[in-house]
Amino acid sequence: MPPPDRLPADLVLEGGGVKGIALLGAVVELLRSHRVERVAGSSAGAVLAAFLATGLDADGVLERVSRLEYDRVPDAWAPVPIVAPVVGLLTRSGLHPGRYVTDWLRRELADLGVHTFGDLRRDDPGDDPALAPWQRYRLVVTATDVTRGRLLRLPWDYREYGLDPDAQPVADAVRASLAIPYFFSPRTLRDARTGRRSTLVDGGVLSNFPVETFDRTDAAAPRWPTFGIGVGDTLSDEDVSVLPHGRRLPGPLRLLDSLVATTISARDRGYLARPCVRRRAFSIDTTGTGLTEFDVGAAERSRLVAAGTATAREFLAGWDWAGYVRECRGAG
């Protein structure tokens, strides 16, 4: 059982495909001293965020995530090797349908009593008074609407499509955030008022690490910190790639693969370089693991979890909440 005196914190989890395994080690370490009030995530970070939003402790998160069979995540459109992924890419804009991970997440969340965002509603009178009713949830998932050219924060932005945020399935929002371009097929969101359809892809295309999600907009000092946990290869000069064998693609396709990977992995780097942002966020070194290497073995998964644990432990050992508020929030 977690200690009863854990400190409150909001949490933002970066996306990163398979690299997201490292987030698990960091989150478990964080849960030893803090309880998560609200959590935001993109792509792989959205999966873990969904479980944390249900109120699970460290053991509960470990138990749920351990049931995911990573080698089944890149599922098939049809039982025809090589041909099916190519046909899926050409006809449905994705090598894989993503049914397995969606069904797995929907099943696990249902077992925890969570189906729609209405099950994750949060009403805290101490929150930022500028928060609208449609922004008061324990979970925020990012996705990218490439039809309208905008970043979505779900469930906040469902109302822009004439949809009731409370009624939208959590698993559907997470699946949209997981739609790595060309790897998983995109999702479709239909405007209930006009019938217009939007194509949704990975939230990382526009913001993979939205650390500012829960920042107050009034003049009050924050009641507790927002921690950001990333999995960017900040210490690496490796070539970036989305597809498992992207480095061996012919020129034009290699360029497209690198462009998508760069968009997902580097979009937020300028913002994250700011001193006060770096004080509340940390990145786990996941060098050597590709975004879509879902056939990663048990030894590599253990290495990633251990890296997350060690990085979070080092960060928390140097964390100074009072100093951060004084120097970065202008409060005593």
Automatic annotation (TrEMBL):
InterPro entries (UniProt xref): Acyl_Trfase/lysoPLipase, Lipid_Hydrolase, PNPLA_dom
Identify the domain of life: Bacteria
Q: Does the keyword Isomerase apply?
A: no
Q: Where is this motif: GXSXG?
A: 41-45
Q: Which GO terms describe its biological process?
A: lipid catabolic process
Q: Find motif (GXGXXG) and give its ranges.
A: 15-20
**Keywords associated with the record:** Hydrolase, Lipid degradation, Lipid metabolism
Q: What is this protein called?
A: NTE family protein
Organism, per UniProt? Answer: Geodermatophilus africanus
